[in-house]
Amino acid sequence: xxxxxxxxxxxxxxxxxxxxxxxxxxxxxxxxxxxxxxxxxxxxxxxxxxxxxxxxxxxxxxxxxxxxxxxxxxxxxxxxxxxxxxxxxx
Length: 90
Prior knowledge:
0% strand, Arc Repressor Mutant, subunit A
């Protein structure tokens, strides 16, 4: 199963939390406050996210976020095999 297939199995709230956790440098306490939940609830969510994604922690979540195409991205990026340079010609 692809990583995006795994992400589809996260709840919308888990995807939200994973996205914020992967793209911020907040501590758990700051992240919980930003999300409007307790630090304990955040830790429960993160534990379940890590379990479902089969990763060890936030560093792995960040690495996965870097390599996961966003909803607007599809196919190879510029410079990758299969990317059409014709789109960039004038």
